[in-house]
């Protein structure tokens, strides 16, 4: 294709997105659109899969059968969300194996929040309340994104996510209405998860390299700073209901703007964790790589069995 | 020699009386596993009463580049629609 023809196709493409038309996998798309979507959707899928690990840590130690059943269901949902997203990503012409390979080699990223440890039961409450809360804020606008398979996957994810946040808040509420020690445990979890949750909404607009292009493609409908403000505005009153304190001395309601002002985020910490130096990066990656490698014989055996069954069927028919 | 599990497309009937609708895709070694995986991945909340799976390679899809010749001829056939025909207002039940 000549450069002029590509330019022409690009203009038609941009106009379609402008009109809010969806782009489907077999439609022509600029190479950069394809690559950006592979990067973002796979990063999102990896986050769901790695995100199972910190919570999986507490399944066997959940304090009641009710909590255990809920946590199991939540972790299973995350596996499901990862799978919806991987298959959406594969429609762009990348294979599942390549995607895993990118995760395992460190080439692809996942949400840095999952590199923090879950050291008490209250962390499970805080993750549901804060981490899933931030995820919902990130994800709801994506239900309207321009790439059809991604938008459809997100509709399903968002429908299921609301239970995650409510179960987390209920855990926090129970602890906060419990003994002094239980309430202190909830406060401690908020102290540790608050700032990483704010970071989860991404670098500031000034530092974000992808925002402008992503807004144009409707891969993002709001900037990171807008999403973060929304998260803070809706979460602070929830902390008030719990009766615990958000660990930010600069946090205060601003009558004039109608939003909360908040303190400086430690972006050095964020970049350290993104670059692999968080408390659990190595542990998380090892768990994923081990699962993949130790499961190889099962995948091979299933394939060999399927082929054998198939050839039996063929032999019978002939 | 490594062989990857093939890709399957999943169709779910959400309740009797409705058609099966495309829900997404997944990997599985064979049809039976594809059905079981589809149950776990796509119907965790009573989304379905029946599942179809078909290996993706058996689906032939039209090419969006051919949309002009495939679909445009229908556009100028407005006489296929009831609103094409002008009738006086006093004609009822039509």
Protein topology:
The complex is a heterodimer of chains A (318) and B (94).
Chain A (H helix, E strand, L loop, with lengths): L2 H16 L12 H20 L1 H5 L8 H26 L5 H9 L16 H19 L8 H29 L3 H21 L10 H6 L7 H19 L9 E3 L4 E3 L5 H11 L3 H14 L1 H22 L1
Antiparallel strand pairs in A: 1-2
Helix pairs in contact in A: 2-4, 4-7, 6-7, 6-8, 6-10
Chain B lengths: L6 E7 L6 E8 L3 H12 L7 E6 L11 H5 L23
Task: Give an account of the 3D structure.
The complex is a heterodimer of chains A (318) and B (94). Chain A is globular. Chain A has 318 residues and is an all-alpha fold. The N and C termini of chain A lie far apart (48 Å). Chain A has 13 helices and 2 strands; from the N terminus they run H-H-H-H-H-H-H-H-H-H-E-E-H-H-H. In chain A, helix 4 (65-90) runs antiparallel to helix 7 (148-176), helix 6 packs antiparallel against helix 7 and helix 6 (121-139) packs parallel to helix 8. Chain B is an alpha+beta fold. Chain B has one domain (7-80): Phenylacetic acid degradation B (Ubiquitin-like (UB roll)). Chain B has 2 helices and 3 strands; from the N terminus they run E-E-H-E-H. A 3-stranded antiparallel beta sheet of chain B has the order 2-1-3, covered by helices on one side. Chain B is elongated. Chain B starts with 6 loop residues before the first strand and ends in a 23-residue tail after the last helix. The mean pLDDT of chain B is 94. Chain A binds chain B through residues 24, 26-28, 73, 76-77, 80, 83-84, 87-88, 90, 95-97, 152-153, 160, 299-300, 302-303, 305-306, 309-310, and chain B through 2-5, 7, 24-27, 29-30, 33, 40-42, 44-45, 61, 63-65. Chain B: This is 1,2-phenylacetyl-CoA epoxidase subunit B. Chain B: Pfam families: PaaB.
Features:
heterodimer, A: mainly alpha, 13 helices, globular, B: 94 residues, alpha+beta, Ubiquitin-like (UB roll), 18% helix
Most extensive interface, chain pair and sizes: A-B, 27 and 21 residues
Q: Characterize the largest beta sheet of chain A: strand count, sense, and whether it forms a barrel.
A: 2 strands, antiparallel
Query: Are there runs of chain B of 5+ residues with pLDDT below 50, and where?
Result: none
Helix content of chain B: 10-25%
Strand content of chain A: under 5%
Give the topology string of chain A: H per helix, E per strand.
HHHHHHHHHHEEHHH
For this structure, the quaternary state is: heterodimer
By DSSP (H or I, 4+ residues per run), the number of helices of chain B equals 2
Beta-strand content estimate of chain B = 15-25%
Number of strands of chain B: 3
SSE order of chain B, one letter for each helix or strand: EEHEH
Basic shape of chain A:
globular
Q: Which blocks of ≥5 consecutive residues of chain A have pLDDT under 50?
A: none
Please identify the top-level CATH class of chain B.
Answer: Alpha Beta
CATH T-level topology of chain B: Ubiquitin-like (UB roll)
The class by helix and strand makeup of chain A works out as mainly alpha
Number of domains of chain B: 1
Main β-sheet, spatial strand arrangement of chain B: 2-1-3
């Amino acid at each position: 294709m000549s450069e002029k023809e590509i330019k022409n196709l690009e203009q038609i493409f941009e106009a379609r997105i402008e009109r809010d038309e969806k782009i489907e996998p077999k439609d022509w798309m600029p190479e950069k659109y394809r690559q950006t979507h592979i990067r973002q959707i796979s990063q999102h899928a990896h986050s769901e899969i790695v995100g199972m690990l910190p919570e999986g840590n507490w399944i066997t130690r959940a304090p009641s059968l009710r909590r255990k059943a809920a946590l199991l269901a939540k972790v299973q949902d995350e596996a499901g969300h990862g799978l919806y997203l991987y298959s959406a990503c594969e429609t762009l012409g990348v294979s599942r194996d390549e995607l895993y390979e990118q995760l395992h080699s460190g080439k692809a990223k996942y949400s840095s929040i999952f590199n923090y440890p879950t050291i008490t039961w209250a962390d499970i409450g805080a993750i549901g309340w804060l981490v899933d809360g931030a995820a919902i804020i990130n994800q709801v606008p994506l239900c309207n994104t321009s790439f059809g398979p991604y938008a459809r996957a997100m509709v399903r994810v968002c429908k299921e996510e609301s239970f995650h946040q409510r179960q987390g808040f209920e855990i926090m509420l129970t602890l906060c209405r419990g003994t002094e020690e239980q309430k202190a445990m909830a406060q401690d979890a908020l102290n540790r998860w608050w700032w990483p949750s704010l970071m989860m909404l991404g670098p500031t607009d000034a530092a974000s390299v992808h925002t402008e292009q992503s807004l144009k493609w409707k891969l993002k409908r709001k900037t990171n700073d807008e999403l973060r403000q929304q998260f803070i505005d809706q979460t602070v009153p929830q902390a008030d209901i719990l009766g615990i304190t958000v660990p930010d001395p600069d946090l205060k309601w601003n009558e004039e703007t109608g939003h909360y002002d908040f303190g400086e985020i430690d972006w050095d910490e964020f970049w350290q964790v993104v670059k692999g130096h968080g408390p659990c990066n190595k542990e998380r990656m090892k768990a994923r790589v081990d699962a993949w490698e130790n499961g190889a014989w099962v995948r091979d055996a299933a394939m060999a069995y399927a082929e054998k069954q198939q050839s039996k069927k063929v032999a019978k028919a002939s | 020699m490594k062989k990857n599990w093939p890709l399957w497309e999943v169709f779910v009937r959400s309740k009797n009386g409705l058609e099966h609708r495309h829900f997404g895709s997944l990997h599985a070694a064979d049809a039976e596993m594809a059905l079981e995986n589809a149950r776990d991945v796509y119907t965790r909340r009573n989304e379905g009463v029946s599942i179809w799976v078909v290996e993706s390679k058996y689906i032939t899809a039209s090419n969006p580049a051919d949309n002009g010749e495939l679909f445009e001829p229908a556009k100028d056939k407005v006489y296929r629609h009831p609103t094409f025909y002008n009738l006086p207002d006093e004609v009822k039940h039509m």
